[in-house]
Design brief:
6% strand; 389 residues; mainly alpha; globular; 4 strands; 67% helix
């Protein structure tokens, strides 16, 4: 029963971390997650290990303290509920990591099962788009792009806003760039577990997202796998895949460099960089309501249409957003902690995936990626407390 419950918890964590439908129910789902995680403990007979418990407690208190200081030191308005919400979410996710570590359970294997669900959903989604496209209706319009939905279960993006334009598979999520993140994590795990059919299906489905970041991450994962393989057959297979994918990745990057999407990403980076330079120590505050006003005072310049497209939305570059919100020192600390996560092996590749994925998506402080931050904080605290990292 606990095995099934763990997978339900991980499914919900991903569903509210970029999910197009469940994102609207995030508050209710987070409360539900708290009860599910607590139920895991009630049904477990294993005594909580002191080192993990102490490290987890210090991590939760440290993160909450950072948020409280960020709230009071900010020169701009922050809704106290937003500070409370992320503190509670961090607490829930830290409890979950404590459970996994205390019971010596691999979160990778649980994630593998859950991510397969999103993979097959995305495959079915693409089949429906191909043969039953007419049944999809407009769900959202962002600039020149349109998101189409089938009963808020399946989604795709029309790349240039025209019905006959390139369509991009986004599966269960709010845009293709989010889907590719989870598919790339599945690719990484499936290669490690030698589940090569799932790996191939992941690659093919990533291609249907037409995500530049997704292609780059996929290529790096395959390159890392190639360097770590000793079997001649595996080397031949992976090399062939990489050579086949290279022209696709190259063309995609060249096309995206002149697209409106790349201009908006560039604008978000420059805007956050300018604001960070003006508030280097304490930042402007996490989820400050004055961010859109600040953009008027710290205009990055460039194309006016790009600026108009970003007026009423947040910054999509959550790597820069971390520095802009918390300041350079705390921002660097967060990424150091993320590097030292121990949910996955190969810290360098996982760190690369997390950083590149969040360079174009506002997901760094979502439930899924908070798992990495929480894991790293717990891991580092155990290093200093018990010298057994």
């Amino acid at each position: 029963m606990n095995s099934f419950l763990r997978k339900i918890i991980l499914f919900l964590i991903i569903a509210v971390s970029g999910g197009a439908t469940f994102n609207y129910l995030a508050n209710q789902i987070n409360i539900f997650l708290l009860f599910l995680v607590l139920f895991l403990y009630f049904t477990s007979s294993k005594v909580i290990l002191k080192d993990y418990f102490t490290a987890t407690l210090i991590s939760v208190l440290s993160f909450s303290s950072i948020l409280v200081l960020n709230f009071f030191l900010s020169d701009f308005y922050i809704n106290p509920l937003d500070t409370i919400k992320i503190s509670v979410r961090f607490f829930i996710l830290s409890l979950l990591i404590l459970y996994y570590k205390n019971n010596n359970i691999s979160i990778e294997k649980d994630l593998f099962v859950v991510l397969i669900i999103f993979l097959f959903h995305a495959i079915l989604n693409y089949i429906l788009i191909t043969f039953f496209k007419g049944y999809f209706t407009v769900f959202n319009i962002v600039g020149t792009r349109r998101v189409y939905s089938f009963y808020r279960i399946f989604y795709y993006l029309s790349a240039y806003g025209e019905e006959d334009s390139t369509i991009r598979n986004q599966g269960f999520f709010w845009e293709p760039g989010v889907l590719q993140i989870y598919l790339n994590f599945l690719l990484f795990i499936s290669i490690k577990l030698k589940k090569y059919l799932i790996a191939i299906l992941s690659i093919l489905t990533i291609i249907t997202t037409f995500s530049t970041a997704g292609f780059i991450i996929m290529f790096v994962i395959l390159a890392n796998s190639l360097l770590s393989r000793k079997s001649v057959l595996n080397i031949i297979i992976i090399s062939t895949l990489m050579l086949s994918l290279f022209p696709l990745i190259k063309n995609n990057i060249l096309e995206k460099t002149v697209s409106s999407s790349s201009h908006l990403r560039k604008y978000d980076f420059e805007q956050a960089w300018i604001i960070t330079k003006n508030f280097p120590l304490k930042g402007i505050g996490y989820l400050t309501k004055d961010y859109n006003k600040l953009k008027l005072n710290y205009y990055a310049g460039g194309n006016d249409s790009d600026y108009q497209a970003t007026i009423n939305r947040g910054n999509t570059n959550s790597v820069m957003y971390a520095f802009m919100s918390f300041g350079i020192i705390i921002g660097l600390l967060f990424f150091i902690f993320i590097f030292f996560q121990d949910l996955f092996d190969n810290k360098f590749i996982i760190f690369f995936i997390v950083v590149l994925a969040n360079f174009s998506e506002p997901l760094l402080f979502s439930n899924f990626f908070l798992l990495f931050l929480s894991s790293g904080m717990i891991n580092v605290n155990r290093l200093f407390l018990y010298k057994n990292l």
